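Work Package 3 (structural annotation) set out to generate three-dimensional models for the target panel prioritized at the project kickoff. During this period the team completed the workflow that converts sequence records into discrete structure tokens, so that structures can be stored uniformly alongside our sequence database. As a representative example, we reproduce one entry of 165 residues exactly as it appears in the project archive.
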Amino acid sequence: MSGEGEAAILTLRDILELRLAESTNGGIRLAILSACETGLPGAKIIDEVISLPTGLLQAGVAGVAASLWSVAELSTMMLLTRFYDYWRNDHLEPAIALRQAQQWLRDTTNAEKVAYFRDFLPEPSALKMPIATADYLYKALILENSGDRTFAHPFHWAAFSYVGV
């Protein structure tokens, strides 16, 4: 462990030693790795290539969603917001929820996305996300041509994959 004032680096070895299934009541259902390239395997040990999602699975997480390439902040926020809605509110399995969110991001028009995020704004007591986040997403979309599908390109939605049960 690093000394005081030094940045600590969390390694895959650290994660594997956590034994998450044993240390949490019922285990951890889902880990979302939304940063760039979090699903890519490392290649430092030639005969054992392990990715962060694989390490989390071995440590006891039931499922992991991670990105395979550099992702854009705006489209990732929209994708994961919609994923969370499908998973938690519509009770879809994580793999299905991710696929539905990817299709939603790809296929809906900017106007449909504006309508979706507008629903997060009216009543602060009923917010599903911080108002600043909903406001940011809503304003970013309102400036786009309403009939366009700005996020239809696979760059915006295809980076994320799901592994696990």
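The CA atoms of residues 92 and 123 lie 26 Å apart.
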